[in-house]
Amino acid sequence: MRLRDWQQKCIKIALTKYNNNNNNNNTVKHFLTLATPGAGKTVMASVLAKKLYDKKLVDIILCFSPSSVVSADFADELSLRFNSRFDGSIGALGDSYTYQALSTLNANVWQLFEQYRVFVIFDEIHHCAGSSIEDANSWGSPILNLIKEKAAFTLSLTGTPWRSDSLPIALSNYCNESGQINCDYVYGLKEAISDKVCRVPQIIALDNNKITLTNSEETTTFTNFFELLKAKVISYSELVTNELVIENLLLRATAKLKEIRSINPKAGGLIVASSISHAHVINTIMRSKFSSSAIIVTSSENEPDKIIKRFRQSDNEWLISVGMVSEGTNIPRLQVCCNLTNYRTELYFRQILGRILRITDSVNQDAFMFMPAEPNLIDFALRVAENVPGELGKVKIFDIEIENEKSIVLEPLDNSPKVLAEEGDLFDINLDRLINNEKTTETNLKNNSKTPLAKVANNLTLDGDFNHRPINPVGLSELLLFDISDEAHAKLEQLNRIMI
Predict the structure, then answer these.
(1) How far apart are CA 425 and CA 349, in angstroms?
(2) Residue 377 in contact with residue 371, Cβ under 8 Å?
(3) Taking residues 312-334, what's their average pLDDT?
């Protein structure tokens, strides 16, 4: 398989840096790659690992990822490159783990760093925080304690090189003057679209032009979701679980997927739900209103990883996920997604969008995200072409404060206390550091499995017309190489005039 140009360049630069490594300059052996979701980081990392091995610079390769699905994909890709097992068994050349496993690895694994030259790959490194032991989170601590000094080389990968809290990313360097993270190689979305590596994202925001709230004292009318949410009369959780909102979002998404499947019969769609009960409500609406089939994958299903893999290889239409289709999960046939989660961080938004950006050899390369017209989400959509968001907060490294993204308050589904967004707010929804608890993603989701679906109060009525508008990301207009046709736009616009 021929490597993409960016992959070849990145590997060359990494090898040059590693070749300059010496005992007096420990930072040279750590390499950070920023590559937009869908660009092919797994392949690049595996080829780099093989080149280091062939040059007799490393003996063993270990990989850490944020989910078991991605971990398995890395093991498969490494096995293909090396023609060897990567399962930790006798004769294997390494292993692939989740970050959750960092705290449970036995002494035999850590002993490898004393006896062999180990190359360590960290996928989506932004999950791991800390410039020192004092500010490290539960995943960053063992990296700083046990791997940073002892690994022969490390490769850190990310598509979103920032965090939603004030902590620095493990193994990363920051510029004190600009506050920007220093990446050894950068391959952004604009470059990926120009190179025909990624699809152009088409982001569609759903709104309603007459929303009425009635209470004992007065009746208030709002002309859009922005006004409604700004008034704080209902939460965003209530909005995304409103059945009319769900129906109208699915109306547009199912119509678009049907259109794409008339050209690409295997094209699929992803719906990201807020909770397990929410996922089942969405599935019921899919069947009753649109006669569409959907597969649900949550922590309550048996062997969810196998469900995802079967969906990847099938021609089923829709996958409804709660916290299971994580960043890095490779399902290239996905071309439409519905963002119906109540979690709103820029990290989460970009990782959802990244699931539909992978170019395939199919004739049609449309990529559509449908979402409610929520102000934060619209802001995120406008700047998806920025490698690092412009809205920055504070990152504390020792006694130095450096600019980074501000924390965002998340709305829980129930009446539990609000918490701050952490790196696990992506698909893992792992809030362990913030609540001082080492719960796994699966445990967190199972605890929410019986949470009743949030309902909009009886005094709220959506009696206006549902409409949608495209959000055009800044800086991508000149790169619309695969933009949808005028005819396709017209078909989508017809849905603005359809009443359910």
Answers:
(1) 10
(2) yes
(3) 86
